[in-house]
Amino acid sequence: MVRLITHNMLACHARNCNKDNFPLVFSDVELVVREAELNPDFLRRFLPKIDWAALVDTARSLGDTSLPDEMPTEWSDEQIQQLHHVLLEMHVEEGNMTCRGCGHIYPIQNGIPNMVSLTGRHS
């Protein structure tokens, strides 16, 4: 499943694409919410790896506005729950991820992104 925790680490790797290749932009998305067990310690350890601006923009593009513009320095239980929901419970089942730089399209089918296919290469 494409969860935002994974999406936040994906960049376009098409040949000669090295500008504006992160984050990939979702389109034609079928979004499913699946409950997952909350693990606050894992989330706190994972925080330094997150590109916060990309995460917030992507979550908002999928209709979730629960995350603040800036990453909190101190986390309340409610904020940890919101982060957990965005990172681990929002699943993109179907759709596309498109590179802003080169327009390469990465299709998502049955929750699995095809990061190697060159079909449907540009929008």
From TrEMBL:
GO biological process, one term: rRNA (guanine-N7)-methylation
Domain of life, source organism: Eukaryota
Record-linked Pfam families: Trm112p (PF03966)
Molecular function GO labels: protein heterodimerization activity
TM regions (residue ranges): none
SUPFAM superfamilies according to UniProt: Trm112p-like
Coiled coil (UniProt feature): none
InterPro entries: Trm112 (IPR039127), Trm112-like (IPR005651)
Family: Belongs to the TRM112 family.
Assembly information from the UniProt record: Interacts with TRM9.
Listed name of the protein: Trm112p-domain-containing protein
Annotated source species: Cutaneotrichosporon cavernicola
